[in-house]
Design a protein that fits this description.
The chain has eleven helices and seven strands. The protein has one domain (about 5-260): Rossmann fold, CATH 3.40.50.150. By secondary structure, the chain is of the alpha/beta class. The chain starts with a helix and ends in a 15-residue tail after the last strand. The protein is globular, with a radius of gyration of 17 Å.
């Protein structure tokens, strides 16, 4: 893949804009066929009750897990959703935090933001807002969030250490991160690594599992653990059978939990290692 980081970001933005408008595929079976988004959601950890609790059109079938399943969301908390898309996880979180809490969704794609805002208005959810921004430069204040969630988004970033650093920055001391994402169990072949379709489909941009965990360590987090892991077999029909088979063998879906210590002053300190 010869594209620059900016090129890759624009490709991702374009494909997810198409997904928001229902005019194209972005690498997974979910955005190509709206008929199977509920089946995909069930397979990655969402209950029928959760699916029924969100506005129509919020679930685009683009996730790889349910980050709220192990998040322990409490009433009154401030939750931040990275790459919030059409608002699926943000709306579920809004139900959990209640009117005393607040949910912020951040996305870089105008079309996704418009769809999420329309969904929120139609569902009369006034404790959730959506902001335009990059997950590498979050439009959120320091030490202001109790919980950061994300669903199959960090792997799309070309600067993942910066994402983890930004998550650490915005979390309150004692705050936590719970993200669903795809990681690699082994390196990819050059052909798959250089596939744009596989990148947009959340495969070729994924990091090796130990490198992904290491980024959380370097950002300053402690209590880092994979709370759930499972085989990921949602699709990638466009890249061909051979590359798809390799992807299915190399990729796994994880739910990662990490905590920003109440005492820690930042990633430059040694306190997160104690």
């Amino acid at each position: 893949m010869q594209e620059t980081k900016q090129d890759i970001r624009e490709i991702v933005r374009e494909r997810y804009a198409q997904a928001a408008q229902g005019t194209g595929c972005c690498g997974t079976t979910g955005c190509c066929g709206a008929s199977n988004v509920e089946e995909i959601a069930n397979a990655i950890g969402y209950s029928d009750e959760e699916l029924a609790a969100v506005p129509d059109g919020a679930n685009l079938g683009l996730g790889c897990g349910n980050p709220l399943e192990y998040a322990g969301v409490k009433a009154g908390e401030v939750v931040l959703d990275l790459g919030s898309g059409a608002g699926f996880d943000a709306f579920l979180a809004a139900k959990k935090v209640g009117q005393s809490g607040r949910v912020i969704g951040v996305d870089m794609t105008d079309e996704m933001l418009a769809r999420a805002t329309d969904n929120a208005q139609a569902f009369e959810l006034n404790n959730v807002e959506f902001r335009k921004g990059l997950i590498e430069a979050l439009p959120v204040e320091d030490n202001s969030v109790d919980l950061v969630i994300s669903n199959c988004v960090i792997n799309l970033s070309t600067d993942k250490p910066k994402v983890f650093s930004e998550v650490f920055r915005v979390l309150k001391p004692g705050g936590r991160m719970l993200v669903s994402d795809l990681v690699l169990t082994r390196p990819l072949s050059p052909e798959l690594k250089n596939s744009v379709e596989a990148y947009v489909g959340c495969v070729s941009g994924a990091s090796l599992r130990h490198e992904y965990l290491g980024m959380a360590v370097e950002a300053g987090f402690n209590e880092i653990q994979i709370v759930h892991e499972q085989r990921y077999d949602v699709g990638l029909e466009e890249i061909g059978a051979e590359l798809r088979n390799e992807a299915l063998e190399a990729v796994t879906s994880i739910k990662l939990r990490a905590v920003k210590s109440k005492e820690c002053c930042g990633p430059e300190c040694d306190c997160h290692k104690n």
